[in-house]
UniProtKB/TrEMBL annotation:
Keywords: Glycosyltransferase, Membrane, Transferase, Transmembrane, Transmembrane helix. The keyword Glycosyltransferase applies. GO terms for cellular component: plasma membrane. One of its GO terms (molecular function) is hexosyltransferase activity. It is a multi-pass membrane protein. It is found in: Membrane. This is DUF2029 domain-containing protein. InterPro entries: MptA/B-like (IPR049829).
Length: 504
């Protein structure tokens, strides 16, 4: 990957240093305004309790948003070189690392989900079924840290999530703060895996690896919500990226095992799996068209691809079954997935439509309107996933674009959407070869999403002032981006036809 010193003294240096400062500000500000433990966290422990309320908390909020601004502008400043194929993979990888590592000692930021994860691990260790009961069924230090909104709620995550959290709880010695530190180490390791696998998939797909890593790993969404927020999205996402890279290498059993691991974490991973058939089919066609001798007995590419997919599916089922048996909790998580419907925010299109209908027609019973729009959203999403899968079957390039579009459809049409869900789309963004206008829109959406949640995990989506600020920031980012990338657009469409990735 190259040394950090080479990246820091090169053209990317000013942006990298600015991002490090932003990340450090997030860590410090989190001790006053983050998703603090009930005892107040490190600030209270060292006698600075005034940092967690009143004027101290206001100062922490100012520092936090200053840190966010530094991270966002640092990421943006690397972008024009990324989309023009001039950002070394080394620099994008070091941006991810240097902006994430200062968060190691931080409290959970922009979400309290990490406390819930640990409580679910404690439940599993105590023999309490997290798919039937909420954390309140297992009182203790971990349950105390869970948001009151979720203490009575079963978990929608898979058995591998529970096994991992059970291990973290065991290593923590019963101390939630230690559990958070261990979890962050695991997330940072997984984030390094994400960078490596995004680069590997991009290289195999023939797209620029620097741009792919810039969008997937160095993005403020990844740094703030994965490294900072500790969301478990990172684990199934890494497994899905591994499945794609392995399929591109025609290692189908291993690819299936990776999909099994991903689904055992979170059901979202199922969206990626069907597109692997089209990649396998394209690989078979390329083998047939090559000068190499064909395997005996020779099969048609479609039959061979179907058999490859059967092998992958078998491996996925075995891995998933083993994870389920190891967790000892059965398949209750399938029924528990619907608990997420309790959350209402308009990042989800069905929820946004329900708000608009309710306001425009002054209809009574918002919940009734929401139930209808969510059901319509589910139907539209199911149809969209099938249509996208079928339309994007031509070759590997087409299948990779279909994966990204299917994931995008999910985060938009699902009953619930959070900013960190969009990391899935970002991870597959450049292997899908989007055009300059689509990438410009993605930049604007990224900036808006980063401002959609407060540092303590509270939503900013229903504050007119905060939403207005997010829209202004997003519009400013789009304006700046369009001007900064004008030369790249007029010279050549380097996003649609990027140069091979560099590992300088």
């Amino acid at each position: 990957m190259g040394s950090a010193r080479a990246a820091l003294i090169g053209p990317s240096g000013p942006a990298l240093w600015r991002g490090v400062l932003g990340s450090a500000l997030l860590t410090v500000s989190g001790f006053g305004a983050g998703a603090l433990p009930v005892d107040g966290g490190p600030a209270v422990a060292v006698g600075l309790s005034g940092f967690t309320f009143g004027h101290g908390e206001v100062l922490a909020l100012v520092l936090c948003w200053a840190g966010v601004a530094l991270l966002v502008t640092s990421w943006l400043s690397l972008g024009p070189r990324a989309v023009s194929g001039r950002l070394p993979t080394r620099d994008a990888a070091w941006a991810t690392a240097l902006w994430s590592l200062p968060l190691l000692p931080a409290v959970p930021l922009f979400s309290r989900d990490a406390w819930s994860y640990l409580a679910q691990g404690a439940m599993t260790a105590a023999g309490v079924d997290p798919y039937e009961y909420g954390p309140e069924a297992n009182p203790g230090p971990f349950t105390t840290e869970v948001s009151p909104d979720w203490r009575s709620t079963a978990t929608p995550y898979g058995p591998l999530h529970l096994l991992l959290m059970r291990g973290v709880v065991a290593l923590s010695g019963g101390h939630p703060a230690v559990g958070v530190l261990i979890l962050r180490v695991l997330v940072l390791v997984a984030l390094a895996g994400l960078v490596a696998l995004v680069a590997a998939a991009a290289r195999r797909a023939g797209v620029d690896t620097g741009a792919a890593v810039w969008m997937a790993g160095a993005s403020p969404l990844a740094v703030i919500h994965l490294a900072g927020g500790l969301h478990n999205e990172i684990f199934p996402l890494v497994a899905c990226l591994a499945a794609v890279a392995l399929t591109l290498d025609r290692r189908y059993a291993w690819a299936g095992a990776a999909i099994g691991l991903a689904v055992a974490f979170k059901a979202t991973a199922v969206i990626v799996a069907p597109f692997l058939l089209w990649i396998a089919l394209d690989r078979r066609r390329r083998l047939q068209d090559s000068a190499r001798p064909l395997p005996r007995p020779h099969r048609s590419p479609l039959v061979g691809a179907v058999l490859d997919t059967v092998v992958a599916a078998g491996a996925a089922v075995v891995v998933f079954a083993l994870a389920t048996l190891a967790a000892g909790t059965g398949l209750g998580w399938v029924d528990a997935i619907s608990v997420s419907d309790r959350v209402i925010n308009y990042l989800s299109a069905p929820t946004a439509v329900a708000h608009l209908v309710h306001a425009a027609f002054d209809t009574p019973g918002f919940e009734d309107v929401l139930a209808v729009t969510r059901q319509v959203g589910r139907v539209v999403l199911a149809v969209a996933l099938v249509v996208v899968w079928w339309l994007y079957r031509r070759d590997t390039r087409s299948a990779l674009r279909g994966m990204m579009l299917a994931l995008l459809a999910f985060v938009v049409l699902n009953s619930l959407s959070w900013p960190w869900y969009h990391v899935w789309v970002a991870a597959f963004w450049f292997v899908a070869r989007p055009g300059p206008r689509a990438t410009t829109a993605a930049v604007g959406v990224t900036v808006f999403l980063v401002m959609g949640i407060g540092p303590n995990g509270s939503t900013s989506l229903y504050s007119p002032t905060l939403v207005g600020a997010a829209l202004v920031a997003s519009a400013a980012a789009v304006w700046w981006w369009w001007r900064a990338t004008a030369a790249a657009r007029t010279a050549t469409d380097t996003v649609r036809t990027p140069s091979p990735g560099r590992d300088a």
